[in-house]
Design a protein that fits this description.
about 100 residues, extended, Bbp19-like phage domain-containing protein
């Protein structure tokens, strides 16, 4: 019996099937310098590199939105997706049962 896949795993399956998404990841890897050696780098530089990569990823994502879109617009779109939508209370829907 196999375990149920998480929403994240399902999302990534769909994305990884897309040649366009794989090209996006290649650009991200290029921005990140994944194929370059990091020997001797201190923690501060490592963290700044990660921050910079995050900004590069947001810049890449902005390419999928209408022209003249900034990183702030991408952040707003991400926050909308990550914010649960309000739904009626379950208790209110069951109150007519009593």
């Amino acid at each position: 019996m196999s375990r149920k896949q998480t929403p994240h795993e399902l999302d990534m399956m769909v994305l990884m099937r897309s040649a366009a998404f794989r090209r996006f990841l290649l650009r991200v890897c290029s921005h990140a310098g994944i194929w370059r050696s990091t020997a001797g780098a201190d923690q501060a530089l490592h963290m700044e590199g990660r921050r910079s990569l995050g900004l590069d990823i947001l810049t890449e994502a902005a390419a999928g939105l209408p022209r003249a879109t900034s990183i702030e617009h991408v952040l707003a779109a991400i926050l909308v997706e990550s914010t649960p939508q309000e739904t009626p209370d379950d208790d209110a829907s069951h109150s007519s049962d009593t």
